[in-house]
Amino acid sequence: MVDTVTGRPEAEAEGATPPILSHWIDGRPVEVLPENTGPVWNPATGEVVARVPRGGADEVARAVAAAKAAFPGWRDTPLIARSEIFFAFRELVWQHRNEMAELITRDHGKTFPDALGSVLRGLETIEFACGLPTQLAGLNTPNVATNVDAFTLRVPLGVTAAITPFNFPAMVPMWIYPIALMCGNTFILKPSSHTPGATQLQAELWTKAGGPDGTFNIVYGGREAVAAIVEHPDIAAIQFVGSTAVGRHVFEEGTKRGKRVASFTSAKNAMLVLPDADMELTADAAVASGYGSAGERCMAQTLVIAVGNAAERLRPLILERIARLKVGPGMEPGVDMGPIYSREHRESIIRWIDKGVAEGAELVVDGRPFVHPTNPNGFFLGVTLFDHVTPEMEIYQEEIFGPVLGIVRVATYEEAISLINGHKYANGTAIFTTDGGAARRFKLEVQVPMIGVNVPIPVPAGYLSFGGAKQSASGDLAMRGEDGVRFFSQQKMVTERWPDPSRRETLSLVFPGNR
Ligand code: NAD
Predict the structure, then answer these.
(1) How far is ligand 1, taken at its centre, from the CA of residue 262, in Å?
(2) 221: which strand partners?
(3) What is the pTM of this model?
(4) Which pLDDT score, from 0 to 100, does residue 421 have?
(5) Dihedrals φ, ψ of 239, to 5°?
(6) Full set of structural domains in the chain with CATH
(7) Pick from 308, 318, 302, 315: which is nearest to 420 by CA?
(8) pLDDT, tens digit, for every residue of 420-455?
(9) Residues with CB under 6 A from ligand 1
(10) Are 40 and 105 within 8 A, CB to CB?
(11) Cα distances (Å, whole numbers) of residue 299 to 115, 225, 309, 418
C-alpha cells in the first residue's frame, strides 16, 4: 500500500502501535482515526515511530474557523500582553529544546547536535518576536497641511498560514509564525508529514504559554490540505518553504486569489574558492556545508567553484576530512552525518550519483555502497565527492539535496562569478579568500542575496531577513526580520484633521493641497 500523504510504501517495518499525532485546532488536539493517518519513519532504523493525520479541506476549514474567531480578540490584545506570552513561550521552548531536537533526529535523521542547533536558530526569531512592539511602531508627522496631521500604523492581516518542508520542522516554522502572531494575526501551520514530532510540540507549548485558543493551529496533510489553504477565501497570507515546483504553484494560485504569498524554495549553492584562500579553513567549510545534515539544507554549498590551482590544493584536504567522517544514527555520540530522511529520497540521490557518472564527472568518493553495520534497514548513504563537474551537467544544474559535493574547476574569478550569476537558483553563496578587495567585489557583483565571506552557511541571524532570488524564491519580501513584519502586516496611512470652529474653511472642489 502506498501512503497518500507521503507517497511511501507503507507495508514494511510498521512498528507495534506507534502513537498517533493529532491536528491542533482551537487550542487542543483533534482526535483522528488510525485509518486516516500515515506513517512517520525513523530513518536511522527504518521503523515506523508515529502516525500522522491526513488532513484535507474539512480540517483546514475547521482551523480557519477557529483562527477567524480568535482573530479580533488577539488583534486587540495589548502588545505587551502578546509579548508576555512570547516570553513565556520562549522559556518553554528553551526548556524543551533537547526533547524537540530528539524528535527532529528521530523523524529526520540529522544528528542531535545539528538538530539542537536548528532549534536554537529558531529560538532567535521567537526572541525577536518578544521585542517586536518597537518594530510595529508607525511614523507620525504633525502639520503636513494646515491643521492636518499624518501618521502610519501597522495592523494585522487576519488569518495567515505557512506550508513548511521536512528538513527543518522546528526552525523554519519558528522563522514564520512568531512574527505572524506577534503582528496580531492568527495562524495555521501545514507542516511536512515526514517530520511532524517537533512541530506538534510547538503547538502544545504555545497553548501552555498562554497562547489563546485558535491563535496557532496545525493541520497535517499533503496536496489536499495545501489546496484547501491556497483556496480558502478567509486566509489572507501564506508563506511557503519547500521545493520550487510546489512553491511556484502555491505562489501563483494564492496570488491569483488575492492573497499575499511568499515562497522560499529550492537551491544549488556554490562557494567560490580563490587560490589565496586559507585552504584548511576552506576544506572544513566545504565538508561541513556539503555533508552536514546529509546535504538536506537549502543553504548547503554543494558546488565548490575553484579558481586556478585552488582545486589541486583543496581536493586532498577534503579527502582527508571525508576519511574521518562517521555516518550513523543521529542520536549516537560522535556521529557526523545521519541517514537520508526517506527511503525514496535516498534512492533519488543514488540516481543522481549514477547520472553524474554517466555525464562524465569524476567520481572521487562513492557513497552508494555504504551500509550501516548495525542498522542495515536505515536509510543510510555515505558521502559522495565528484570532481571535474561542468555547467552542462544536470548534477551541476539541479538540486540533489543529499550528501553529494561537486568540484568545478575554472581559470579565473570572472569565469567563476559568471557561473554563479548564470545559475537558475540563487539562495546562498560564499567566497573563500584572504583578499579583502576580491571579497568586496564579490559582495557587490554576485547576484545571490545571502552571501558568506569565509562563512560556508551564511544563514542570517534570526532577527534579520532570510530569502533567495530567481528560482529560489517567489515574491518581493524575504522571510523574518523587517521583511517578515512588512509581510505579516498592512501599513495604513492616516491623514487627520479635527474640526476647529475658529479656522473654518470655505467649500472648495479643488484637489487638496498641503501648502
Ligand atoms: P516539498 O516541496 O516536497 O514540500 C514542502 C511542503 O509542500 C510540505 O508541507 C509538503 O507537504 C507540501 N507538498 C509537497 N508536495 C506537494 C504537492 N504536490 N502539492 C501541494 N503541496 C505539496 O519540499 P520538501 O521536500 O519538504 O523540502 C525540501 C525542499 O525545500 C528543497 O527543495 C529545499 O531546497 C527547500 N527548502 C528551501 C528553503 C528556503 O528557505 N529557500 C528552506 C528549506 C527547504
Answers:
(1) 13
(2) 55
(3) 0.95
(4) 98
(5) -110, 130
(6) 55-265+472-493 (3.40.605.10), 269-453 (3.40.309.10)
(7) 302
(8) 999 999 999 999 999 999 999 999 999 999 999 999
(9) 163-168, 172, 190, 192-193, 222-223, 226, 241-243, 246, 264-267, 298, 399, 401, 427, 468, 472
(10) no
(11) 15, 27, 26, 20
